[in-house]
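Researcher: We plan to redesign the surface later, but first we want a full-length starting point. Tokens attached.
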């Protein structure tokens, strides 16, 4: 287990026989929790075998056939539970229970046995026939399949597909695998552009405003209300020909500003929580 940040770790597993997974690019595994509270969730390995060396974060980990790495973000309970006395439309819409599968994975110890079921096979397989440009739109841990695809596209000989990765997170500290993404954006600047979108759809909401007003008075906060809250570390995000940064939700404005426009040889991949699909491309069952 390798801790990445405040709520995300990389879990390195080994197949029972030492055989490689041989998943197709962007293919996933279905992880099953314990029998007592069975939950199944899809996870895309970010590296397998020799691919460990392509990720700066894992380059010191032993890479061998049969070993694969899964990045899991731990989802804790968020908001007010409407079943505990706060049953209003607002609280019910914003409440998120703790992630059953992610918390199960984070409770694992070295040498624990985990059951993976089969594999999820992507509809579009690499090499992407007839595709010259790819928009990869990811939010949070949804960057995992994009990283898997990028390693294949960027390192494959004679592949000239161009990619725009539009990657959204609530804060700079939530960005995953940034060291590899930044390095790839510079190394493959003619084919990859990485755009970090930081914030949320509620970019103009100032948390803790009541306490600030009590302390500093209304006059000191009036100007602050005219712009989104300051994002800690935002100015550390690189800007170059192949790197960009923007604030707010990964939505229409960011897509129009940075993504490739629709065309017969362009494909757009999306990965994130259910709300991301609903907002950008429709439910997963309809895509």
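Model: Full-length starting sequence:
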């Amino acid at each position: 287990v390798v801790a990445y940040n405040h709520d995300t770790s990389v879990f390195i597993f080994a197949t029972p026989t030492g055989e490689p997974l041989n998943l197709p690019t962007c293919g996933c595994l279905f992880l099953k929790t314990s029998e007592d509270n069975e939950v199944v969730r899809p996870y895309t390995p970010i590296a397998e075998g020799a691919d460990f060396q392509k990720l700066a974060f894992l380059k010191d980990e032993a890479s061998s056939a049969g070993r694969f790495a899964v990045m899991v973000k731990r989802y804790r309970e968020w908001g007010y539970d409407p079943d505990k006395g706060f049953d209003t439309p607002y609280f019910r819409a914003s409440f998120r229970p703790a992630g059953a599968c992610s918390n199960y994975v984070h409770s694992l110890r070295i040498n624990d046995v985990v059951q993976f079921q089969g594999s999820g096979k992507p509809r579009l397989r690499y090499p992407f026939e007839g595709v010259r440009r790819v928009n990869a739109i990811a939010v949070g841990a949804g960057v995992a399949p994009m990283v898997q695809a990028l390693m294949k596209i960027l390192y494959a000989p004679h592949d000239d597909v161009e990619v725009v990765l539009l990657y959204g997170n609530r804060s700079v500290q939530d960005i995953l695998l940034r060291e590899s993404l930044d390095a790839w954006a510079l190394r493959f600047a003619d084919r990859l552009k990485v755009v970090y979108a930081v914030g949320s759809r509620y970019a103009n909401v100032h948390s803790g405003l009541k306490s600030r007003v009590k302390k500093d008075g209304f006059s000191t906060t009036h100007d602050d209300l005219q712009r989104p809250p300051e994002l800690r570390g935002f100015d550390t995000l690189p800007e170059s020909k192949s790197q960009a940064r923007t604030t707010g939700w990964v939505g229409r404005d960011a897509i129009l500003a940075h993504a490739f426009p629709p065309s017969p040889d362009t494909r757009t991949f999306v990965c994130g929580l259910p709300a991301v699909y609903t907002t950008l491309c429709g439910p997963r069952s309809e895509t």
